[in-house]
Every structure is written in C-alpha cells, then in structure tokens.
Amino acid sequence: MKLGRYQEYAGFWIRSAAAIIDTVILLMLILPMIYLIYSSYYLGSERSIDGGWETLFSWLFPFVLTVLFWTYRSATPGKMILKLKIVDAKTGEPLSITQSIIRYLGYYLSSIMCLGFIWIIFSRKKQGWHDMLAGTVVVRTENRDVPDVDLENNA
C-alpha cells in the first residue's frame, strides 16, 4: 500500500480500542483450548500452571498469530475493524517479518509502566516505542475530512 500525499496517523485512543478488541478475540480463542486441556482447575486456581500447553497458548500462539496478521494483512482484527493499518514508516509498504517480530518484542519495552504506549500521545507521528524500534506507523485507511500529516515532508 503506497501512502497518498496525506495520510492520517492513528492516535492513542483508537489504537487502544483496537487492542481491546484484539484481546477479547484472542481470549475467545485461547480460553476454550486451555479449558479443554486443564479443565476448570485452570480457571479456578490461584496458582500458576507452567506447562508446555500454557506456554504454547499464552506466549507462542499470540506471538505467531500477531506477526502473521501484521505481515500478511498489515493489521490485527481489531485494527481491521477500526480501519487502521500498520505500515513501514518510510515507504508506506506492508511490514516485513523482521519488522513484525521487532515490533512485537518492542511491546514488552513499551509495557514498562505503559510509558511506550503513552508516548503515542506525544509523538508527532503517533508512534509508540515499539513502532520506533521497528520503523512503523499506524495509519487510518479511510481519510477523514481534514488531513493532518504530509508524510512526504515529515521524514
């Protein structure tokens, strides 16, 4: 996807809404599988279950799914619903697998006291720390009435 002359960066609140949608969808996929494996013990226990299935469904599955969505669809389901895309900050092209992996791992850095996510509010290009690390931006796929950013002049 080549970016037009004007493209609007997606801000903190709409990206937060997309993350909530993604979390709900992911939980709807993962919880039934975990329940089938561990039964009600998993949901009712205060103790952590550290097994291979737990690692697979809580860590590996979300990682692989998210990286695949970012690489092949330029968005997770929440971003698609809200008409957002994640693109390379310089070219406007879809992310490479490497950028997707760096962006995902950068989420852990951004999660430190949520500072990397709050940074989106103050960044000119509405980038979180994970976006800056991976060289990505999140843009709206539908132009609104007033464009607010000219990517050609904001390198």
TrEMBL record:
PANTHER family in alphabetical order: MEMBRANE PROTEIN, PROLINE-RICH ANTIGEN HOMOLOG-RELATED
GO annotations of cellular component type: plasma membrane
RDD domain segment(s): 9-135
Subcellular location: Cell membrane
Organism encoding this protein: Vibrio caribbeanicus ATCC BAA-2122
UniProt protein name: RDD domain-containing protein
Keywords assigned by UniProt, alphabetized: Cell membrane, Membrane, Transmembrane, Transmembrane helix
Topology in membrane: Multi-pass membrane protein
Lineage: Bacteria, Pseudomonadati, Pseudomonadota, Gammaproteobacteria, Vibrionales
Membrane-crossing segments per the record: 12-36, 56-75, 104-122
